[in-house]
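Re: [help] complex structure
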Amino acid sequence: MKILVTVKEVAEVEDEFEISGDDIAEQYLEYDLNEWDDYAVEEAVQISEEAEDVEVVTATIGPERAEETIRMALAKGADRAVRVWDDDIESASYLDVEAKAELLAAVVEEEDPDLVLTGVQAGDESNGATGVTLAEKIGFEWAAVVNQLDLDIEGGVANVHRELEGGVEELTEVESPAVLTIQSGINEPRYASLRGIRQAQSKPLDVQTLDDIGLDADVLESPLAQTDLYEPESEGDATVWNGDAEETAGQLAEFLRDKGVVEG
Amino acid sequence: MSDVLAITEHRRGELRDVSLEMVTAGRDLADQTGGDLHLAVISGDVDDYASQVNREGVDAIHTVEYGEEFNHDVYTQAIEELYAELDPQYLLAPNSVNGMDYAPAVAEGLSLPLVTDAVDLAEDDGLTVTREQYGGKVETTIDVEEAHAAVTIRPAEWPQAEGDGDAAVEAFDADIDESEIQSTVTGFEEVAGGDVDISEADFLISVGRGIDEEANIPLIEALVEATDATLSSSRPIVDNGWLPANRQVGQSGKVVTPDVYIAIGISGAVQHVAGMKGADTIVAINTDPNAPIWDLADYGIEDDLFEVVPALIEEFGGEVPDV
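Output below.
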């Protein structure tokens, strides 16, 4: 059995930042493994530890810089990695959900996995749509926002819980092959061990161009264009207490006593 | 061709509020395109739901009677057929957990550009969608350079439609291919039970990612004890297993309405805000001046929680734990 996990390197923004052109200035960005993908990797690795002959392959769309993130997933137990990138992708004006799903679909075609796990969303763009779009493209069944997974490999069924709003979970049987988008909290992602980090250095990480996966640059053309990026105007009008911690704590304490929520 | 088709949502026999928000967003967009607003009601007691969403500004309601609960394979087929029949310009779906489960598939099936989690829509010779990025730190505008598009709408961003409507309700005879239905909903489970009901508390002290590690949680617990408050948290704390699920405030946790809500080290992501914006007074303790929590806070301290919280514990005569 083969599990393909999509892994994205996401940009995180520092508290204080500036905007340059149509994005946040590079010096305020830090790159890391997407939080939701971390849970997806862990879920796949746990399945591979519990069942015989399960291979976990990660798929990433990203520049060379992303290899640090990919090695992290390998250190946590994925067996090998595919990274799709070339000059055309680098220069695409807007890599939309459709294009990402198209690239990942080509990887799926090559790898022929039995199960695809993605994060529910990426922490930077938060489209929350790539996994289900991919499923529809490759003709897999799917389930979005999965926070419990019990795989019946022989029965060809994934028994999942989907995390709905308001503390309600939907119990669903999903026929495989399937794409499941994994919600944070489904498991406890492990830290990479030193041994894992060492082993990751020698695990295969294949870099594929559009041409390698049988696509041409047309797939990158988007009907969408990002025309602006700006800091939203603060709607806040909070009364901010000033001073050192003792002073501000004193003011908050006085406020709570006045409100009558705290005695003493 | 200038019409808007908006999809409503229900669960376990009840229409969800987001359906009435869809009416507002859909009417607003249809006013800009100069078209009609069509609603789709799929599965369950469709006539009951149809009468509930029949508000002012709705031009037509299409019902698809098939099954009881949401199933994405049914929704996907029904919406695609309805879209082909009505030929609207724009398709709107809620960016709810179920919306996320079918809207991308419908957009792919209909070859429509998809923009998710919209917080604003403007149509002037083409659609411009406003959405957030980087956890709400910035907004972006996305121009759709095609005549048609599918957009998902952030819940609780548009007001619920009011006023009775007089739209015709028509049963749409969708041809659902059962062999395409490859997932089955077998039940529902309520989570987040337990000994504490944070939705009943008058005074909540809520902890978020800013607490950094599990070993620091006792600091907040000491403050809770010293002030006789109730402890709650944002999602990452529960995801990490540092507090049980019944403490979680937000979209997937509990909705709380205390007199006072102190958010400590909580940035105020939209999913969290959905659970606590009804608090009477909101106090933020946060080092990040750009955190979205400041949009809601009535009072605040822009400082390090590890400085402020011990001082606060001492104010109330509590003992500061060694963390």
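Chain A touches chain B through 84 residues (CB under 8 Å).
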